[in-house]
Amino acid sequence: MTVSQIELGDGLVVSKLGFGGMALTHVYGETEPEEALKTLHAAIDAGVTLLDTADVYGKPQPGAVGPAGTNEELIAQILDVRRDEVQIATKFGITGQVGPGVGTRGDRDYVREACEASLRRLGTDVIDLYYMHRRELARPIGETVAAMAELVQEGKVRHLGLSEVTATELREASAVHPIAAVQSEWSVWSRDVEREVVPTAIELGTGFVPYAPLGRGFLTGTLTRDAVASSMRAGQARFDTNFGANQKVVHIIREVADELGATPAQIALAWLYAQGERLGIPVVPIPGTRSAARVRENAAATTIALSGDQLARLDSASDLVEGGRNLSFASDDWISAGRE
């Protein structure tokens, strides 16, 4: 099947399903570059045109300072042969390896420096969607967005996005330049953005790009304790100490999947599409995978219709979740819910 197109905000048209490139690097296990490229080609062949990466994604080199950039370099190999078939989204703002003590910057010099570095690694002359990955909390967000807007004026960036911002921050940013998309975690078991951020995005005409739409693999029902222990999920309460308790959420998703002859991953994605329709906001999830077969499985979710009863049961799943969604090493203000 071929994934259909949808408009986010600011006139940005992309595929209804995106691809989260972070999964192709070391955070969830190693991937051979050849297999990663096969997966990316399979995504584009299925009609997935929005490829999402970030300057911080990848395996840091020993002794290196600053963002790794190796994920962008991987994506560059696809852009070299299929640039006119995709929209590339990347991010700046996290100044080093994601982990304890990670820093952020949003000053004009850094924004411009980060953009130039991403363009160079990606091997392209324009970024379709450029996100502020995390904001520098001591700096007014409008200052950072003004620097990003300069990049649009110069033709280096086509559209602007923000990741993990509050409703107030989104308003302040939108007063400086139109924001095409907000990227934050949103799924069956992570719904805090529905309180304030999503309604504000609707009001401002901003689309939504949910990351971790499959709960970092948990909602697929295939995640094992060993896989948790060997990845960035280790130490996070949802996956670690509450692994067993949160199987109740998976059980509900699997029940609905069995009724429709679908997979749990497809149902989790279908719920997001249905939620977007109910709330009135364009939604483009960006699940990541290292498997071409999983790409095709995820693409099939774009056409699944859920009944009212099935939606109600899936809605109730969020009340059963044990453990918060914030990363174990980060302070509460790392995600928008911690600053609301």
Strand content: 5-15%
- Identify the strand order in the major beta sheet: 3-4-5-6-7-8-9
Q: Which blocks of ≥5 consecutive residues have pLDDT under 50? A: none
Structural class: alpha/beta
**Shape, principal axes of CA atoms:** globular
Give the N-terminus to C-terminus distance in angstroms: 40 Å
CATH class wording: Alpha Beta
**In percent, how helical is the residue content?**
25-40%
Q: Indicate the CATH architecture.
A: Alpha-Beta Barrel
Alpha plus pi helix count: 11
Fourth-level CATH superfamily: NADP-dependent oxidoreductase domain
Order of helices and strands: EEEHEHEHEHEHEHEHHHHH
| Number of E-type strands | 9
Radius of gyration: 19 Å
* Biggest sheet record: 7 strands, parallel
Instruction: List the domain count as a whole number.
Output: 1
Instruction: Fill in the CATH topology.
Output: TIM Barrel
Global mean pLDDT: 93
Pfam families: Aldo_ket_red
Keywords: Oxidoreductase
InterPro entries: Aldo-Keto_reductase (IPR050791), NAD(P)_OxRdtase_dom_sf (IPR036812), NADP_OxRdtase_dom (IPR023210)
Domain NADP-dependent oxidoreductase: 16-318
